[in-house]
Amino acid sequence: MNVYGDIRTLFRDAVGHVAGERGVSAPDADFSVEPPRDARHGEISSNAALVFAGAFGMKPRDLADRLVARLEASDAVAEISVAGPGFVNLVLEPGRWRDQLRHILGQGIGYGDSQLGAGQRVNVEYVSVNPTGPMHVGHGRGAVVGDALAALLAKAGYAVTREYYVNDAGVQVDLLARSLYHRYREAAGEAPGDMREDFYPGDYLAGTASALLARDGTKWLGAAEEVWLEPVRDFAIEAMMDLIRDDLAALGVAHDVFASERELASSGAVERTLSELEERGLLHVGVLDPPKGKADEDWEPRPQTLFRSTAFGDDADRAIRKSDGSWTYFATDMAYHRDKFERGFPVLIDVWGADHKGYVKRMEAAVEALSAGGARFSVLVCNLVNLSEAGRPVKMSKRAGTYVTLREVVDRVGKDAVRFMMLTRGNEAALDFDLARAVEQSRDNPVFYVQYAHARACSALRNAADAFPGEDFSDAALGRAALDPLDGEEELALIRRLAGWPRTVEAAAEAAEPHRIAYALSEIAAAFHGLWNLGNVDEARRFVVAGDPALSRARLALVRATALVIASGLDIMGVAPVEEMR
RNA sequence: GCGCCCGUAGCUCAGUGGAUAGAGCGCUGGCCUCCGAAGCCAGAGGUCGCAGGUUCGAAUCCUGCCGGGCGCGCCA
């Protein structure tokens, strides 16, 4: 039960009917059924006649006239006309819109759930931060975008798995282990001197070092690196993953699967992947061109084994083995993506930070090759987050100690504000995040503005309980209310917005753009605040009208439906709907 | 040099091929003798970077320029 979906069905039937008359089959083309920008063009407009006229050998306006002839018989349609080059514009019976409120009240938060995905399995991989330290704010954006996208796709009917790829192999974690060992010696009372330039300098390792000392005592002191490297590394990785999982928990992010690079590598998956590519002639030995546009005094041509990613649209072939014989990150990542595909995910989505943008093409090429075109793979690249405080940029420097971690920001403004702010831009756009703005209680702050609308709605319902003791204002009771009193243009405008919620969810899911949910909620909140304010000007237009329970009930049905849609959207965003502002 | 992203109101930005391009901020002017103003309403403000092309129709798709950001051998 979805107004736009129902009208679309009417159009499809009408198009099919005309096609039958003309002895042609209607092409499976997409056409619009949507609110026009300009309200003078009615409540719903369709370009169906413009889309199908060509295939039917008709003029668009003639086809539009035929569609109108079919559609005007429907009970739902109050007015219908042809306009411009062949748009069909219509106005529905107000009751058709109002009935949508009953549907919303019946569905609750589940309103807007869709079967678009038809249960197809989707793997969303996000965060995947190296286990070498706490998360920073940029990581937080990827975490929120990935988490909201996963929730959005789930609402749209996909079977979503949320996955984290743990880079627990390779030189980074060896470096982490050596950094920790340095701290460990310090903790044990030795004076190891300054840290090496490439070590991880953060203080967080001091606590981990103490924990290591508490567990193992001084047994690693004076030992050769071959002896301590592995146990210290394992300890470090575990500690860092605990740290990261804590950061994620504070943000309200939880993954279903933590995939280990080390386990993958030791399973032989990399070798299997590469030998498959070898058999298919997709590996070759070659010499890459030197990198352009940057200082390259160290560059020397070297023949190496390359993956033929240019055959799948990449700009250059890519190395798969380092000079020391170990795999490149790309090689293990190919194996990992093949593994995801083989675990039964035809749709793979990765959420990456801006610093990995240059790797998109080669990964697309790799998945294309490894799935034989069977996987739908896409990468959402999250642009930078510019932190500021009341308009002043917060300079971040690890050296100067002004580095701001994600955890600090979450503790400062709360997870809801962080999550909402992170979704106020498309993922590809750079995002300005002002710490003061995020907690400001004003129209400027979208988090507040949407939360406030929900709280106001809850407040009206509380007021109703006071004004009409003993009356039943449950969702079920409101769903049975006579809704005819909802006849103001502002009321109907809000109802139309609520009726558009399922469309919004589907469109956002198809585009993989969770930020659209934030925008939609802001618009719904604005319509609601406007309606609320009419009650300031004219008491007769308040939601709760003393002495008129029937009118109040009808209006509260709209109020409650609005709150449910906002809550439904906030649920996708992972933001709690508050019942009162404190 | 190549690749990706961005270019829309003074500022920050929405806008999956539709009709006269929107919102917030800022500016101007209005709405409560609080108990529904943490808000609302109205107004001014645009060559959608430029030039071609495709289309019945382009901010949206294609090509070429201009400007800005990010990235570019074995790092992850």
Structural notes for this entry:
This protein is an alpha/beta fold. It folds into 4 domains: 3-92, Arginyl tRNA synthetase N-terminal domain (Gyrase A, domain 2, 2-Layer Sandwich), CATH 3.30.1360.70; 126-257 and 384-439, 3-Layer(aba) Sandwich (Rossmann fold); 267-382, 3-Layer(aba) Sandwich (Rossmann fold); 442-573, Isoleucyl-tRNA Synthetase, Domain 1. Helices cover 50% and strands 12% of the residues. It has helices at 3-21, 48-56, 60-71, 94-107, 137-155, 171-187, 204-216, 225-251, 261-266, 269-279, 329-342, 360-370, 406-413, 415-422, 435-439, 446-467, 475-479, 489-499, 501-511, 515-537, 549-573, and strands spanning 33-34, 44-46, 77-83, 87-92, 121-125, 159-166, 257-260, 283-287, 303-307, 318-319, 347-353, 376-382, 385-389, 392-393, 431-434. The strands form 4 sheets. The protein has a 5-stranded parallel beta sheet with strand order 7-6-5-11-12, with helices on both faces. The longest helix has 27 residues, at 225-251. The radius of gyration is 29 Å and the shape is globular. The chain starts with a helix and ends in a 9-residue tail after the last helix. The chain binds one RNA strand of 76 nucleotides through helix 2, strand 10, helix 16, helix 19 and helix 20.
